[in-house]
Amino acid sequence: QAIERAPELPEWIEPSLKARNGWPDWREALARIHADPADAKARERLAYDEVFANQLALLLVRGEARSKRGRALQGDGRLRDALKLPYSPTGAQARTMREIEGDMAQIQPMLRLLQGDVGSGKTLVALMALLIAAEADAQGALLAPTEILARQHFDNLGRMLAGLDVRIAILTGRDKGKVREATLMGVASGEIDILIGTHAIFQEGVTYKDLGLVVVDEQHRFGVAERMMLQAKAAVPPHLLVMTATPIPRTLQLASHGEMDVSKLDEMPPGREPIQTTVISEDKLDAVIAGLGRHLDAGKQAYWVCPLVEESEKSDLQAAEARAVTLTARFGDKVGLVHGRMKGPEKDAVMARFAAGELGVLVATTVIEVGVDVPNATLIVIEHADRFGLAQLHQLRGRVGRGGGQSHCILLRGNGLSETSRARLGLMRDTTDGFVIAERDLELRGAGELLGTRQSGEQTFRLATPDSLASLIVSANADARLLEDQDRALKTERGQAARMALYLFERDAAVGLLRAG
Question: Which of 182, 266, 348, 424 is the most buried (most CB within 10 A)?
Answer without folding.
Answer: 424
